[in-house]
Structure prediction request, 225 residues.
Amino acid sequence: AQSVTQLGSHVSVSEGALVLLRCNYSSSVPPYLFWYVQYPNQGLQLLLKYTSAATLVKGINGFEAEFKKSETSFHLTKPSAHMSDAAEYFCAVTVRGQNFVFGPGTRLSVLP
Amino acid sequence: DAGITQSPRYKITETGRQVTLMCHQTWSHSYMFWYRQDLGHGLRLIYYSAAADITDKGEVPDGYVVSRSKTENFPLTLESATRSQTSVYFCASREAGGVYEQYFGPGTRLTVT
Prediction:
């Protein structure tokens, strides 16, 4: 069975600083990996996805993530944080498509 | 507009009452899902459906019932609501093939008193 861990339930960064949100997965077969963002009182919005085509994946709003099989990681980064990036971020894994397993989420705060 | 909608957005009900949460999508996606979101747990799958009249249990199905008579609708029923079912419920859908990303509705915040 798959599982996802996200290190740090709450991460704070200053505006303009690097954003790094960590995601590690467990899967016995090659996974598909996703990052979703959730703004307050809204549903989840897809940021980016890894589908084995390229290990470095670029998403919306300047975010990117790198799939590292040796480390079973799929960390999310953004070079320069903006106030509008403050949200909850979820990493998810699937191997067969129908069932996603979500991590517990990381709340990102951006300080002025 | 095309998309996935949920109703109601907010609901307060009493313990023991039956309540149905509605989900409607306009993309004709084959798959539909119900999740609940609780602090510290992320999203947990309650039920999913691969097509009309085909449903299956997820991680936390107890206390919930689903049906899918039409492709575009996937209602979730709590037959006898309990306080532990206080949560935010999200519906999602995706296409049958492709790269599996799911598209989420705006959520229903349910409070059971």
Notes: Chain A touches chain B at residues 4, 9, 32, 34, 36, 41-46, 49, 51, 90, 94, 97-100, 102-105 (CB under 8 Å). The mean pLDDT of chain A is 92. The two ends of chain A are 41 Å apart (CA to CA). The longest strand of chain A covers residues 87-94.
